[in-house]
Structures are given as C-alpha cells and as structure tokens.
Design brief:
Pfam families: DUF6404. It comes from Stenotrophomonas lacuserhaii. This protein has 126 residues and is mainly alpha-helical. The chain has five helices and no strands.
Length: 126
C-alpha cells in the first residue's frame, strides 16, 4: 500500500502551497490539512487558510455554518417538514447544532495545531 502524501497542485495559490508543505512536514494528514471544500476553493484560486491554521472564532463560524445548513436541510427533508415544527424552531435548532459542532471542531483543530507546534495562517501568508 502506498502511504506517500499526494502532490500539491500547482493550481493552488503560492501561500497555500507553502502552508501545505509545512503541514506535510509536520505530519498532518492531508484529510485534515486540505478538506475537499478547501481544495475546491484553492483550485478556484482563492487563498483561504487551511482550517488547522485558522483561529478559533473563524473555525467556529465556518464549520458551524456549513454543518448547521447541511444538517438543518437534511433534518427538514427527512423529519421536520412533516412534524409540524415551526420555522423558528427549525432555524433555532439548526443554529444551535451548528454552533455546538463548530465549537467542537474549533477545539479539536486548535488542540491539533498546538500539539504539532504549527503557526497561524497570518504567520505563514505574506
């Protein structure tokens, strides 16, 4: 089985390539340093920071928002639309679930960044 790290795309912005090289050298798995949505952003030329290098609040907002929207949509399709739950109740539940998920992800990412001694994005990007 080949366990080598896949090459970093030349289409990614230069600061992203530098960050990914540093994360690879620190032993961060590519699944944590370059999630699929971020790889799409980078292919589009957007120089957004890998989530493990961003601050706590940024991770709460970004991971929480994506989770809340996705989970809320799935819950609406599968359960809420036929349950008689109010729109405000649905939105409140999705926001709280997103907030809880965002905080958990931000704690995990901060712990990993500190454990590996990684810098924040602002210290890598020019």
């Amino acid at each position: 089985m080949n366990t080598s790290t896949p090459p970093i795309s030349e289409r990614y912005p230069p600061q992203v390539r530098r960050a990914l090289q540093q994360l690879d050298a620190a032993g961060v798995k590519r699944s944590m340093s370059a999630p699929p949505l971020y790889r799409l952003f980078w292919r589009l030329g957007w120089g957004v920071a890998p989530p493990i290098l961003t601050g706590f609040a940024t991770n709460v907002l970004t991971t929480g928002a994506w989770f809340g929207i996705g989970w809320g949509t799935v819950m609406w399709l599968m359960l809420w639309r036929s349950s008689g739950m109010t729109g405000l109740g649905m939105v409140t539940t999705a926001v709280l679930a997103g907030l809880a998920f965002g905080v958990l992800m931000a704690v995990m990412l901060r712990y990993q960044r500190q454990r590996l001694g990684l810098p924040l994005w602002k210290d890598i990007a020019p």
